[in-house]
Amino acid sequence: MKRIGIVGGGQLGRMLSFEAKRMGFEVVILDPTSHSPASQVSDFQIVSRYDDLSKIDEFIGLCDVITYEFEHISVEFLREIEKRGGEVIPSSNTLQIIQNKLKQKLFLKEKGFNVPKIYKKDEIDKIDSFPCMLKFSRGGYDGKGNILIESASHLKSIVSNIKDEFFIEELIDFEKEISILVARNKRGEVKHFSPVENIHKNRILHISISPARIDKKTEDKIYEIADRFIETIGDFGIYCIEMFLDKKGRVYINEIAPRPHNSGHHTIESCITSQFEQHIRSILNLPLGSTRVISKAVMRNILGDKDIEGDYYLKNIEELLNIEGLFLHLYGKKDVKRGRKMGHITYLCDDLEEGIKRLSNMEFEFIGGC
């Protein structure tokens, strides 16, 4: 029986574990928090920081292949796993390119992909168009690490207090935010999912709509970008490519995630093969699954509405479970925090507009206690 190691014990690791266990594989989680969401549904957990080498041999010894559920881990840690004979997919070299957003953008630009215009720290005097976006090279997610810059004077006041590496990016006047998942295995198989349309609220993904409401020409352009990227990166596993579609029909790559992605959660119910199963298939070099769409779908994140320490429950769970075609996923996190992703719902529907309206109007409340 193959045993899969996952660095990171959050909700993505949890959903990867669900699929791996369903397929008959064992799962080992490495995460600094005991009883993490992923470890609750896995076989083993090693409680360790992501840069602690003292547990690395134990982790390698338990696993046939190792992957990771998020990017903000030590590249050196993954590289040490590889040096000691462990297999990491995607590799540490891939993470090194993608983890640093400036390096990622420069890599994509060098390879001929269309990205927003960027200015490095020593080029900010050349900026002649505002507003623009300041992005930190490391550590940002869910809108964190981005600052909207309104003017040259605003930029000057902001950068005077920044010590971390950053860059400035052209602000795209986009019509839609689109993402696509694409996977590759060592057999050379490549499969992508249908593009998804994403709506953000307070810089956090709010709703994903599958399939994206775009024309055939744009859809084909997105497929071409996805296929070209997976060949360019030369690695394996599943990748999410986030894109901007501007009002002139131009497509820009915004960011790459070398893992399953929030915008792909709908695939658990809406596609023949979920993004999580596809990643498992890819890293184990199994045949890639069909990505055929079973149903149109709308996914919405469930965020914490307040801070609660200890036991809690979702107030309107019975109301949700009475809706035909709606699937509820809660992540088993120890505490509720305002704005934290606590779960998601996926609604399979015939009419996307009805699905968007229904999920957009929902309110979620967490209550402390059992």
Automatic annotation (TrEMBL):
Sample GO molecular function, one term: metal ion binding
Keyword annotations from UniProtKB, A to Z: ATP-binding, Decarboxylase, Ligase, Lyase, Nucleotide-binding, Purine biosynthesis
Source taxon at top rank: Bacteria
Signal peptide residues on this chain, from the entry's feature table: none
Gene Ontology cellular-component terms listed: cytosol
Gene3D superfamilies: 3.40.50.20, ATP-grasp fold, A domain (3.30.1490.20), ATP-grasp fold, B domain (3.30.470.20)
Residues at which ATP binds: 101, 135, 169-172, 177, 200, 254-255
PROSITE patterns listed in its UniProt record: ATP_GRASP
Residue ranges of every copy of the ATP-grasp domain listed in the record: 105-284
SUPFAM superfamilies per record: Glutathione synthetase ATP-binding domain-like, PreATP-grasp domain, Rudiment single hybrid motif
Gene Ontology annotations of biological process type: 'de novo' IMP biosynthetic process
Pfam families, alphabetized: ATP-grasp, PurK_C, RS_preATP-grasp-like
InterPro entries: ATP-grasp (IPR011761), ATP-grasp_carboxylate-amine (IPR003135), ATP_grasp_subdomain_1 (IPR013815), PreATP-grasp_dom_sf (IPR016185), PurK (IPR005875), PurK_C (IPR040686), PurT/PurK_preATP-grasp (IPR054350), Rudment_hybrid_motif (IPR011054)
Reaction catalysis annotation: 5-amino-1-(5-phospho-beta-D-ribosyl)imidazole + hydrogencarbonate + ATP = 5-carboxyamino-1-(5-phospho-D-ribosyl)imidazole + ADP + phosphate + 2 H(+)
Enzyme Commission identifier(s): 6.3.4.18
Keyword DNA repair among UniProt keywords: no
Pathway terms, separated by semicolons: Purine metabolism; IMP biosynthesis via de novo pathway; 5-amino-1-(5-phospho-D-ribosyl)imidazole-4-carboxylate from 5-amino-1-(5-phospho-D-ribosyl)imidazole (N5-CAIR route): step 1/2
Function recorded in the entry: Catalyzes the ATP-dependent conversion of 5-aminoimidazole ribonucleotide (AIR) and HCO(3)- to N5-carboxyaminoimidazole ribonucleotide (N5-CAIR).
Quaternary structure annotation from Swiss-Prot or TrEMBL: Homodimer.
Protein name according to UniProt: N5-carboxyaminoimidazole ribonucleotide synthase
Source organism of the structure: Thermobrachium celere DSM 8682
